[in-house]
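quick one: NDP bound model?
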Amino acid sequence: NPVPVSVIGLGAMGSVLATALIENGHPTTVWNRSPEKADPLVEQGAARATTVTEAVQASPLVIVCVLDYKAMYELLDPLCDALAGRVLVNLTTGTPEQAREAAAWATHRTIDYLDGAIMATPPAIGRPDAFLLYSGSQSAFERHEATLKLFGDASTYFGADPGLAALYDIGLLTSMYMSFTGFLYGAALVGTADVKATAFAPYVESFLDGVVRGGMGQLAQQIDEGHYPDDASPLAMQAAGMTTFIKAFQDEGIDVEILQHIKGLTDRTVADGHTKAGLASLIEQIRTRRLVP
Ligand code: NDP
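yep, here:
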């Protein structure tokens, strides 16, 4: 029998999560600060809770998906014991530290806490390739795995450290933003000769597919081993190349700060004696820069 689930927060994301539950036969109770957002879900078969307490008390599994952690605490902190003994799955985006604090907050109230990060847009929820990342209570994940996989079949549980889902989330999104931004810079550069972005994109796609995708595994292995053999492209040579790239951007009068930053990481790595190392050695500068305020 599908477990009853309560969904708190019916924004773009929470509404779609609730719909997936309703469509799969879960008795679903919904609550939102602006109550009208519950209307379409009630029409689909959800029960409307008039207070957060009522929503929480309706189900052993409570999902919260609101704007940020501040909103989450505003809603859940005043509840006294209503959440005790229940599973709370927090799909609100936050930092690893916020997730760990929330887990401690929950443990103090005997709430079984699972933190989640949604690696999908609302329309993708429920599609087989959609995935969410989970960490925190293993028993909560295992008990509700089938229900949680309704949102994305490719979802993964990373371990008991509640911060892991948020760490992966931000790590993945950082990789995404930097990849897309890299393309924007390339498009701006070729655009100075009236090359259309749509004409440039296929080259970037195949280049990323080959060189970047193909090189990722090797980079990862080198990072893990702390050993960065040069692989025929020693860093000192790459640093010289970067000077050329920066000049090309400057010649066209377009923004060059990101490239200068990468060149800075490279120069400092070379100055540390890694002249013959490969690109993976930049990780040491990236890591130690966290010590600089
Ligand atoms: P929306 O802006 O559509 O909805 C925000 C929700 O938070 C609404 O239900 C809103 O209530 C509620 N809320 C905000 N502040 C408060 C408050 N102080 N008290 C009570 N409720 C509050 O955002 P989404 O639904 O898109 O996002 C929700 C979470 O999901 C976010 O953490 C987001 O990062 C994450 N997420 C979203 C993705 C997306 O593509 N949309 C993708 C991955 C993660 P009200 O309706 O009353 O304003």
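The first strand starts at residue 5 and ends at 8.
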